[in-house]
Design a protein that fits this description.
By secondary structure, the chain is an alpha/beta fold. The chain has 8 helices and 7 strands. It has one domain: Rossmann fold (3-Layer(aba) Sandwich). This is 3-oxoacyl-[acyl-carrier-protein] reductase.
């Protein structure tokens, strides 16, 4: 049966790959986007996840179009990389507000319908950086590590209602974020990955699809690394 799915930040990169993967599986998929245009073939809703009003309005539009959200993928995120010694306070708080508090806002809005239905899937897109750390990314790493504690606590809250909450932790992925790195930086990154390459967005999407499927009905509170072995042991 087709489910109502919402992917935040679903107009490019990993989010778009996730949205396409779930749509190909037969789900009705909506995506939020902050700028630009919605991707072709998907129901797009403009939304800034740092605004509770935006989030509530976006959910209202999705519910009117395809019904209450049954699968939520919290993917929207930003980076503002710099060393902590010279990091402006706004560069720290704004990254947490988008990545972590944004996930809180959309999850809170989604759980109400899921609890009533006694069914649902929530997948948060974290990062290997949240598990292993990365110099120059204290803000980003803190936001992504926070997702793990948030997801595991929520998994305990919602387990009795048959709602699962899991985390996917990608490593380096071929997206706009990594495209800006120099050739030397990309070579250094690739050399640090046991599988010797960076991931395709579609490989992250397939992991999300699994966690959102019936095959993962007994998995909750889990962190699934999709990082080529980069963060093993964390």
């Amino acid at each position: 049966m087709s489910r109502s799915v919402l992917v935040t930040g679903g107009n490019r990169g990993i989010g778009l790959a996730i949205a396409r993967e779930l749509a190909a599986a037969g789900d009705a998929v909506a995506v939020t986007y902050r700028s630009g245009e919605p991707p072709e073939g998907l129901f797009g809703v403009r939304c800034d996840v740092t605004s509770t009003e935006d989030v509530d309005a976006a959910f209202g539009k999705v519910e009117a179009e395809q019904g209450p959200v049954e699968v939520l993928v919290a993917n929207a995120g930003i980076t503002k990389d710099t060393l902590l010694a010279i990091m402006a306070e706004d560069a720290f708080t704004s990254v947490l507000d988008t990545n972590l508090t944004g996930a809180f806002r959309v999850a809170k809005r989604a759980t109400k319908g899921m609890m009533r239905k006694r069914s649902g899937r929530i997948v948060l897109v974290s990062s290997v950086v949240g598990l292993s750390g990365s110099a120059g990314q204290t803000n980003y790493a803190a936001s992504k590590a926070g997702m793990v504690g948030f997801a595991r606590s929520l998994a305990r809250e919602l387990g009795s209602r048959n709602v699962t909450v899991n985390v996917v932790a990608p490593g380096f992925v071929d997206t706009d974020m990594t495209a800006v790195l120099s050739e030397d930086q990309q070579k250094a990154i690739t050399a640090s990955v046991p599988l010797g390459r960076i991931a395709r967005p579609e490989e992250i999407a397939k992991a999300v699809r699994f966690l959102a499927s019936d095959d993962a009905s007994y998995i909750t509170g889990a962190v699934l690394p999709v990082d080529g072995g980069l963060g093993m042991g964390h």
